């Protein structure tokens, strides 16, 4: 194997997933987009601080710490896009299938 | 005095556009019902060109993107635009906000080029 273990594709995907979840959590917590952007920069700095980690056990510890922090900051009412399940516009105005029966009684 | 000067000066100027231009004769149309001039509720549906334009505009606003080769549908986020994996995550998150969708982890990892991203966004029925 030519690649050093912590920098494999799988591990970078794990870290990307953590980062994405961190950004989602930041978005849930910030009411304004500017606030979200500032939090994004702070989150990015925290991730960049662990960029150098090349020891697998150290990496596992860092990932665990991040998971704990994400669990701590988990939002009780996260943002859901309007048309997605749980969103405010989900299944609104569904087109009617078939023929509508006329009221002729 | 100054006012008088201005007055005499402007009165001599003939504005040709007002005099020579003839207004076209308007025929009065009889309207049987209400005529709606413009609907503000109409929103253009998302076409491929529109999606591409919006994505490229978003990418150009991101200062880490290197635009020296231009952004085309084939350009890859990491190889051509010079982003790292966390930058790609940020860009995809911004695209989610732009198009009002949410992209799950496994599909977001598969988005590697601009063209793939456009295809993915167009395949979402609620993207706007």
From TrEMBL, chain A:
It is a peripheral membrane protein. Residues 13-71 form the Complex 1 LYR protein domain. GO terms for cellular component: mitochondrial inner membrane. It is found in: Mitochondrion inner membrane. One of its GO terms (biological process) is mitochondrial electron transport, NADH to ubiquinone. Residues 74-93 are annotated as: Disordered. The keyword Mitochondrion applies. Belongs to the complex I LYR family. Mammalian complex I is composed of 45 different subunits. This is NADH dehydrogenase [ubiquinone] 1 beta subcomplex subunit 9. It comes from Candida verbasci. The lineage of its organism: Eukaryota, Fungi, Dikarya, Ascomycota, Saccharomycotina.
Automatic annotation (TrEMBL), chain B:
It comes from the Eukaryota. The keyword Transit peptide applies. PANTHER family: ACYL CARRIER PROTEIN (PTHR20863), ACYL CARRIER PROTEIN, MITOCHONDRIAL (PTHR20863:SF28). GO terms for molecular function: acyl binding; acyl carrier activity. Keywords: Electron transport, Fatty acid biosynthesis, Fatty acid metabolism, Lipid biosynthesis, Lipid metabolism, Mitochondrion, Phosphopantetheine, Phosphoprotein, Transit peptide, Transport. Pfam families: PP-binding. The lineage of its organism: Eukaryota, Fungi, Dikarya, Ascomycota, Saccharomycotina. GO terms for cellular component: mitochondrial [2Fe-2S] assembly complex. InterPro entries: ACP (IPR003231), ACP-like_sf (IPR036736), PP-bd_ACP (IPR009081), Ppantetheine_attach_site (IPR006162). Residues 49-125 form the Carrier domain. Pathway: Lipid metabolism; fatty acid biosynthesis. Carrier of the growing fatty acid chain in fatty acid biosynthesis. This is Acyl carrier protein. Gene3D superfamilies: ACP-like. Transmembrane segments: none annotated.
